[in-house]
Amino acid sequence: MFKTKRILASIIFFLLNFLLLCSIACQKENSRPHIIFYLLDAGRADYFGCYGQKDNLTPHMDQMAKNGVLFARHYANSFYTSGSLSNLFTGRYDFFDILHQFDDKSHKPLTPKTRKDELTSDCVLLTDLLRESGYRTIALAANPFLTPQCILGSSFDQCIQFDPPKKRSAERAEVIFEEALKIIEAQQKENKQRPIFLYIHLMDTHAPHLPPPLFNKYRENPPPFIHDPQYLKLAGRAKGSMAYMDHCLGQFHQELKKALKGNTIEIITADHGDSYGEAGCLYHRVPSFCREEAHRIPLIISGIPMSGKMNKIEDWTSTVDIFPTILEMIGLKSKNNFLVDGSSLTMLMQSPKGDKRSNGVFFVLEKQCGFRKEGKTYKIQNDKLQILNEGQELFEPPTKLNDMISSLPKEFLDLRIKYLERLVLRNKMKRTGYQERVDETAKSRKEQLKSLGYVK
User: Is the residue at 86 inside a domain?
Assistant: First the structure.
């Protein structure tokens, strides 16, 4: 009898300890903040007031920067959406075609197995880590490539795609933010304790720039090296698109405070910028991307507790840094063995003096790679080097890499070697480009892609 009671007491003690550990783990998971991630497609940093724009286009986002942290020298690692989203959601420089929708052999939509086959064993998606740690992951996307069937879209618990209209885009951001509020309110009713990762991919800051009449009132002064007056109208409409985006985001931000209980981190960034006639360049293809207006993008993080007062970070940062920053901000330590090129920005945000970490930014342009540092941009393709000095309109004539290699930043050369070695190991030298993805897309999408400038 006594032995039976002792066994029963041991079982009860074990169960109580197990429940206590589960409770602690649950509390730790539930204490994690919500994350609202705004990606403004083709959003130029210099169209933000907090980045120097004088036309007061972005008062709401400027206020979020004032209440949070602004990264003054933030740059994209890739010049197009698919590459930038790969950088963002893997934290890697190498290109993973996570907007790919079809199996290359069967040409059928990707299954969970074939989706994993697209990624290497040392690569993991941010969404997978967040979902495994208890987050409800949701994507609302107006970009035509981010579909529920693609690799990235299928990694979310829920991915909703919005069709970018062919003509006036007045309601586009409004509709997406309205849907976002409905989803948040429904999630709060279902499970208030579960943290949310909500990724909102907005296209109103992308060409063709057709803002509502109320916001279509801006005119652009001729920027340096502009060669065609028609670009001034495009740049003026782009300002209107940014002002409209800020208006919609500001309204959503206010409603979000009422709808979402608990700590919330909000992140604003872009996949790349755009050129509107500077040096005769248009949009963000090569060579436009190598110019400041198409390469530099915003990064604003608000809602995190800070011990220091580093409201503005002057260090060089880039898209690959966002992945490890999010993991560190929410205290997530994954058991998975994966490789990340980016570095967490939390030390920069916490240190009053900042934390010098890099002298420039590495970027990839299909079979080219480059490096931007103070006053210079270097670009290498097929062992040919070109340099664009600050204030110059065009790149200098190409020279043989070996003739100039001693003058290049060592950090650039080290990163280039590492990047090329990975390409060889992955045997991924042939990469899927925009046109190939267009061919795989349903015919009904092609007109939408034309209106966005992806297809001529």
Answer: yes
